[in-house]
Amino acid sequence: MTIWQLPSMLLVVISSVSPHPHHLFEYDELSQYVDSHQEEYVQTLRDWVAVESDSSDVLRRPDCHRMMDMTAEKLQAMGGKVELVDIGVQELPDGKTVALPKVVTAQFGSDPNKQTVCVYGHVDVQPAKLEDGWATEPYNLTDINGHLYGRGASDNKAPVLAWIHTVEAYQPSFVITIFFPLLLSTPCPLPMQDLPETGSNGLDAMIVAQKDTFFSDVDYIIISDCGWLSRRPALTYGTRGNCYFFAEVEGPKQDLHSGVYGGTVIEPMTDLIGILDTLISPSGKILIPGIREAVAPLSDEEWKMYQDIEFDIESFKSKIGVSQLMYSNKVDLLAHRWRYPTVTIHGIEGAFSGPGSKTVIPAKVIAKFSIRQVPNMDPAVVKKQVTDYLYSVFAKRKSPNKLKVTMIIGAKPWLADTKHPLYEAGKAAVKRVFDVEPDLIREGGTIPIAKTFEDVTGKSIIMMPIGGFDDGLHSQNEKMSRYNYIEGTKLFIAYLHEVAHLKKD
Amino acid sequence: MTIWQLPSMLLVVISSVSPHPHHLFEYDELSQYVDSHQEEYVQTLRDWVAVESDSSDVLRRPDCHRMMDMTAEKLQAMGGKVELVDIGVQELPDGKTVALPKVVTAQFGSDPNKQTVCVYGHVDVQPAKLEDGWATEPYNLTDINGHLYGRGASDNKAPVLAWIHTVEAYQPSFVITIFFPLLLSTPCPLPMQDLPETGSNGLDAMIVAQKDTFFSDVDYIIISDCGWLSRRPALTYGTRGNCYFFAEVEGPKQDLHSGVYGGTVIEPMTDLIGILDTLISPSGKILIPGIREAVAPLSDEEWKMYQDIEFDIESFKSKIGVSQLMYSNKVDLLAHRWRYPTVTIHGIEGAFSGPGSKTVIPAKVIAKFSIRQVPNMDPAVVKKQVTDYLYSVFAKRKSPNKLKVTMIIGAKPWLADTKHPLYEAGKAAVKRVFDVEPDLIREGGTIPIAKTFEDVTGKSIIMMPIGGFDDGLHSQNEKMSRYNYIEGTKLFIAYLHEVAHLKKD
Fold first, then answer.
1. What separation, in Å, do the N-terminal and C-terminal C-alpha atoms of chain B show?
2. Using an 8 Å Cβ cutoff, are B279 and A351 in contact?
3. A·B CB contacts under 8 A
4. Chain B residues lying within 8 Å of A269, measured CB to CB
5. SS3 for A290-308, per residue?
6. Residue among B401, B399, B386, B389 nearest B246 (CA)
7. Where is the signal peptide (chains A, B) (predicted)?
8. What angle do helix axes A158-170 and A27-36 make, rounded to 10 degrees?
9. Nearest residue to B240 (alpha-carbon basis) of B62, B79, B441
């Protein structure tokens, strides 16, 4: 299986909910409205999943354009002020360019005196083929025991639709008046392989450009492009950043035959393996000086939060198919997944990577590895720590080959304050819909647009997932449970009500 | 640049030269005959190079068949008893099969009382494209200052033609009567990537099958599928063998996202890098216990032989483009190239190997590495040494991942006695044509068919190269010098005369 990095997120900025007294908010009525429309919601999701909007495949670009058009039409039909914003072109390896899918923005109402939220999401998907190991046709949404299987169902089409249904549910004008400025944007439509988690793509530029126009009234940003950790609903308050490195060792001017030249040259691959082996200990300890020292210490309060999280280690192990994890207790495991840095060696470019055998001495090899960033690490400092360390390790080998270390991505982590009113509102909404306290969780991956929004708009962000823990994002047999889709829509309805009652700054 | 393993060699079994008194052998007359035909020889080479008989490319298979047909026709026109021997099919990765090019055998005369030699060579070639960095069209033989540039010119079409010219030169019946049983065979037409140096292919089976028929009268085997070390002519008396290993580390049941899972699993790539780093020291010392101990000690006599070889370290360095070699003196360098084992790590399958970046934790990674074999190493013992060592190193890591080490090729080295009459005859022929003593050299690469011939027929083998040291085999801008081609033909003529006078066993 190939994993693509999440190219992005779908962002929806939402709201301008008139603050009406709580007792006039008829949640039950809205909830029944959602229940009575659920077949229609599933059908819309089926229509959307049927569009193979795989942004990693340039040949599917017309499907991506069609997906954005469908999204825009739907929002327009609902009375939104919709725009398709051009964010430029994508350069292909052969030097040709292809248009990036336009960003869809939609605004429902406008009133600077009311709370205005922006919801972000995406409607492009990861690649999927039946022969990859899907039990059903990936682009034909299939309901099996209440699970809706299809590529993009959970990542991120159903959450986007849940927000759209929320707008629709409020529109028939129940007990409260609503105005939603709604933004649907397609994110960076490129897979990690081409344009990684830097977030430095057309979308970033668009956010900066529209800072004082489209985004001017936005008070909060909501991202629903993640998932729960277990069957318990969750609010996500942090993501790790990522520093991605290339370490290139160059020797002879061309590849050499290992029979003819083996024994005469210091092989670049031997050097590269040697320095890579100094990054991590067998037990996963990062050996680069300074990295571990920069990590914010785990507070007692935080420890307690981890302790309270619902998480079953055994089912996690069986899900990924390993007999033993890096840590055997919940707190250590979750902490190292979310709030400690990790080093992963992804692979080596330039060496022989095909099946079978080949007797080559590769002349130039480039290792790809990355270090997930957490508070209080600083990518600029990490860059120096890693390069200084590798150069010094390499120097000890006294190799005539040339080492070049470069950091090609330096994405910062994002961390929210779980005591912020946005999160308090989230807890209240979860409590109303699911009658439980949400897990407060983090995401081990990187969602660079969160940081971009925060930095550009200066506004607070909440990540509010509705996807299940076992939805199989980026994997075969992705699904969205009907339960999560429908109850998730109700959660968004309840959440907007709570947000509307926050004190306006 | 991609290097393909020499798929093979062309083998020519030659001779039944009537032993006539030396003084009746008019070398000068034959030499003039060759000189006067050199334009014709170059034209034939041009015709042969024009056939893109790239055996690594299945789409070029018709060209390979045509090349064998052309070869057969030429030998038939010369009066040889020619056969095209079917050696079966090649299985492609998709399960389909494609016919292997037939082996051409040719016999010129037959007389068990006379010396009969078998010459082996090949007429398939490595891949070549103008855009790889060729200065001329690779399949259009181009004469620049006496160098004939073209794919396959040196490897191995000109040497094969030189043997054919040798037969032709003798045929007009000069002072000696000749009978040549001549065999032209295409070797394993598969690149290393598919069917490596095991030699276990259709050709091996054919040699075994025809042991008591075609090969029954053969006294000696001559291979001219190698090159000189410098401008001085050379005889080759040894090749290294090769043990090729796969080391597979398997962890999770599928690739994982490094953000989402990094920090929770012991990554197979970290384990693999860790064990690979224990194979070789930074200075190239093999760390696997027992390997170095098995190597035959360098005798004083051998040391002296190396000392006498003409070899310029500086031009070798500039040829491969490195500032420093593994050893700075000639004897150490040549000895480690030819008569000491080396470990090369070729690459890793299953990890990310493309350009750009990808945030994957590969679930299963397979390192490919090989150890060149020299006397007195035994592939079966090496297999045990390597696997025992890697399993013990891996066990110390206490990883939950699974390691599997397999040896997929175990080709033995080949070593001839330079005091053998075949070599004495070679020295005399070189002396006659070039008026110098030949360098006695080895080949760092592996020519498994040499060992097959030796093992199956029990006959002695000599490797007699005529290609230049800078012919660029397997590389861009391959060439054969006109000088080497023409004087090489004369060398073969002189050599057959010498062989004819060896004492018949």
1. 48
2. no
3. 323
4. 344-347
5. CCHHHCCCCCHHHHHHHHH
6. B386
7. 1-19
8. 120
9. B441
Judge: B261–A398 Cβ closer than 8 Å, yes or no: no
Distances (CA, A) of A285 to A351, A444, A460: 27, 17, 34
Is residue B371 within 8 A of residue B341, CB to CB? The reply is yes
- Tell me how far apart the alpha carbons of residues A461 and A117 are, in angstroms, rounded to a whole number: 10
- What gap in Å lies between CA A142 and CA A152, rounded to an integer? 13
pTM of the shown model = 0.86
| Max Cα-Cα span within chain B | 85
Return the residue in A258, A276, A338 with the most chain B beta carbons within 10 A, the one to mutate for interface testing: A258
* ipTM (interface predicted TM): 0.86
Determine which helix (DSSP H) or strand (DSSP E) holds B275, and give its type and residue range: helix B268-276
Cβ-defined contact of B347 to A345 (cutoff 8 Å)? no
Q: Which backbone phi and psi does A207 adopt, to 5 degrees?
A: -65, -45
* A270 interaction partners in chain B (CB closer than 8 Å): 280, 282, 284, 345
Residue type, B20: H
All residues of chain B having their beta carbon less than 8 Å from the beta carbon of residue A132 are none
Residues in chain B: 505
Is residue A418 within 8 A of residue A306, CB to CB? The reply is: no
Task: Answer whether B316 sits within 8 Å of A257, measured CB to CB.
Answer: no
Contact at 8 Å (CB) between A177 and A503?
A: no
Shortest CA distance from A413: residue in chain B: B259
Both tokens of B419, joined, read: 């005091």
Alpha-helical (H) ranges within B78-195 are 158-170
Shortest Cα distance from A505 to chain B (angstroms)? Answer: 35
Give the 3-state secondary structure of residue A349. strand
Long-range contacts: B213-217, Cβ < 8 Å, 24+? B214/B13, B214/B105, B214/B107, B214/B183, B215/B13, B215/B118, B215/B456, B215/B457, B217/B16, B217/B110, B217/B111, B217/B112, B217/B116, B217/B181
- CA–CA dist A33, B49 (Å, integer): 78
Compute CA distances B127 → A3, A419, B96, B138, B467, whole Å: 33, 65, 22, 10, 19
Per-residue pLDDT in tens (0 to 9) along chain B, 505 residues: 222 222 222 334 444 444 444 555 678 889 999 999 999 999 999 999 999 998 878 889 899 999 999 999 998 898 888 888 888 887 777 788 888 888 888 888 777 777 888 888 888 888 888 988 899 999 999 999 999 999 999 999 999 999 999 988 887 544 444 444 445 544 433 333 333 333 345 777 788 888 888 888 888 889 998 899 999 999 999 999 999 999 999 999 988 999 999 999 999 999 999 999 999 999 999 999 999 999 999 999 999 999 999 899 999 999 899 999 999 999 999 999 999 999 999 999 999 998 888 889 999 999 999 999 999 999 999 999 999 999 999 999 999 999 999 999 898 999 999 999 999 999 999 999 999 999 999 999 988 878 888 888 898 999 999 999 989 887 889 999 999 999 999 999 999 889 888 877 6
Largest CA distance in chain A: 85
Nearest C-alpha in A relative to B352:
A347
Is the CB of B346 less than 8 angstroms away from the CB of A360?
yes
**Chain B interface, best mutation among A200, A229, A353, by max B CB count within 10 A:** A353
Who's near A425: CB < 8 A, 6+ residues apart?
A495, A498, A499, A501, A502
In terms of Cβ atoms closer than 10 Å to its own Cβ (0-12, 13-18, 19+), residue A503 is: exposed
Helix (H, G, I), strand (E, B) or coil at A495: helix
Q: Which of A93, A262, A276 sits opposite B444 (nearest CB)?
A: A262
Peptide bond connecting B242 to the previous residue in cis, omega within 30 degrees of 0: no
**Alpha helix locations (H) across A54-116?**
61-77
